[in-house]
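Render this sequence as a predicted structure.
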Amino acid sequence: MLRVITSLSDIKQSIKIFKGNQVSIGFVPTMGALHEGHLSLVRQAKTENDRVVVSIFVNPLQFGKNEDFTQYPRTFDSDCELLSKEGVDIVFNPKAPEMYPDGFCTSVLLERLEDKLCGKSRPGHFRGVAVVVLKLFNLINPDIAYFGQKDFQQTVIMRRMVADLNLGVNIKVLPTIREIGGLALSSRNAYLGETEKKDAICLYKSLIKAQTMVNSGTKNFGEIKAEMEKIINNCKSAKIDYISIVNPETLEAVPEVHNGDVAALAVRIGKTRLIDNIILIFFIAIMFLSSYS
């Protein structure tokens, strides 16, 4: 039966009981407004752990002054219904004043990672993400934490933070879940009108174009970017924030594509900022090698 816990002391006590019974804990951190992408993480966590904890917390530290903190979709009751059906054990729904009491002033510095990609236009965002996830890891002490590939930069930062701070949490990243047509599921898709939703498919189309060009032997980032821009600029409601191809561990931009590099982009569709990415795989090389194995 699903339990909703709101206080830090209660979640720590519940986790203490879990650990005393030597059960494994899978953890899915969310900001709510759940969709199939979140639920895919929950289902994986259920298959790999004895207990599953999901947090729902719209974290004020990761929103900038002109961002959508107050408008961010909050659907707590329906979220709990979904999680109950999935067999989740605990929903942790802390309150901001307890997470960040008066005098709170601690941050997590993410050198060389936070100022890339989304960090350029959202200064301080990933410090806010790192602080809340670190607090949640300390409170819940999970064996495995689950994230989606859509939030690629976040997953890189989480893995780096866990390794650097010896947190002992296994980070698992699962594939992006998409609607028919390729639009990556996101809580912010709720902001899109019907026409904007159709336009938003241009993100995925541009990423597929990048993969197609790589398959055809094009490795120059400038050439790939130009073709991606053509696709996105063909949508009237779209405005590009960035398009980049980066090393999957350092997030450094690459002028020439290597196998496993990541094409990532952020695009505003109307007033809604969407992100997406794809891991670029050299299918031709793989097929060539397999034919001689």
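Summary. Strands lie at 3-5, 25-30, 51-56, 90-92, 144-148, 170-174, 238-246, 262-269, 272-279. The chain has two domains: 3-174, 187-285.
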